[in-house]
Structure formats: structure tokens, C-alpha cells
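Renewal narrative, Specific Aim 1. Our central claim is that a sequence can be written position by position from structural information alone. The example that follows is taken directly from our test logs and has not been curated for this report. It begins with the C-alpha cells describing the chain, in the order in which they were read.
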């Protein structure tokens, strides 16, 4: 009798740059699956980002789209997403140009601003939380 080579639950695949490939889905479960699949030091940062967003915006809505977790407010669209790259995590604030102060990373998209988090960076949780609160009060992106 041959053994089955398929496991009951397939492990998420890491795409180029180390970003987890997670099926599109809505709610906390797909976001937690994405975070659990983040490689190395990025997993701990992903857990912290998720916790800070939950604390700053109670009742936020979550989804995984295009292999990235999205955060939004019901009926208002998405205000933030993040994505793993080889050496950093890129946080996208979709209305970042309206935040005070404006996040440092520029985008080709007119309103979007980025925050890149590298392994050895000092992470300013207070500033991140302030941006999240501000972003959640702006009109979100419909995607």
C-alpha cells in the first residue's frame, strides 16, 4: 500500500522575496494564517503590527488580498496593508499623504505612503499607532 504524499493541510508557500502565498479570504483567520507563515523575524513584527492595529481600531475588518493582509473599517474601505520583501516589511497607508506627520516612503500612487520596517530598525509603536488611528478615520480604499 503506497503512502499518501499529500498532507491534510498544505503549508503556505513563500513567494519570491519571502512573502507568504495565502488564499484570498475575509476575517481574522486568513490574516493570522498569513502572519503565521511570515518567515523569521518578520513573524514577530507581523504579530505586533496586528496587535497594534487591533488596539488602535477596535472592530477593524481584516482580509487577505493579493497575498497581503488588509485592514479596514466596515463600509469605509481599506486603510492599511503590509507585505513581506526579502529584507523588510512594507506597510502601505492608502491615504498616507493625509497623515500627520506623513509616513516617510513615497509611492507612485498619489495618496499612498509607505513605512519600511527592517530587522534591526527601531520601531516607533506610538507613531505607528497614531498613523493607524488617523488612517482609520479617513475614507478608505475600495478594492
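The sequence written for that structure reads:
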Amino acid at each position: 500500500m503506497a503512502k499518501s504524499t499529500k498532507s491534510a493541510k498544505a503549508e503556505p508557500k513563500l513567494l519570491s522575496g519571502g512573502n507568504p502565498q495565502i488564499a484570498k479570504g475575509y476575517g481574522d483567520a486568513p490574516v493570522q494564517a498569513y502572519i503565521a507563515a511570515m518567515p523569521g523575524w518578520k513573524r514577530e513584527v507581523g504579530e505586533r503590527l496586528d496587535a497594534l492595529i487591533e488596539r488602535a481600531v477596535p472592530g477593524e475588518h481584516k482580509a487577505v488580498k493579493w497575498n497581503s493582509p488588509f485592514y479596514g473599517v466596515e463600509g469605509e474601505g481599506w486603510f492599511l496593508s503590509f507585505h513581506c520583501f526579502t529584507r523588510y516589511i512594507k506597510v502601505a497607508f492608502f491615504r498616507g499623504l493625509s497623515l500627520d506627520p506623513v509616513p516617510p516612503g513615497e509611492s507612485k500612487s498619489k495618496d499612498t505612503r509607505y513605512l519600511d520596517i527592517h530587522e534591526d530598525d527601531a520601531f516607533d509603536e506610538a507613531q505607528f499607532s497614531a498613523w493607524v488611528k488617523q488612517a482609520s478615520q479617513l475614507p478608505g480604499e475600495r478594492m
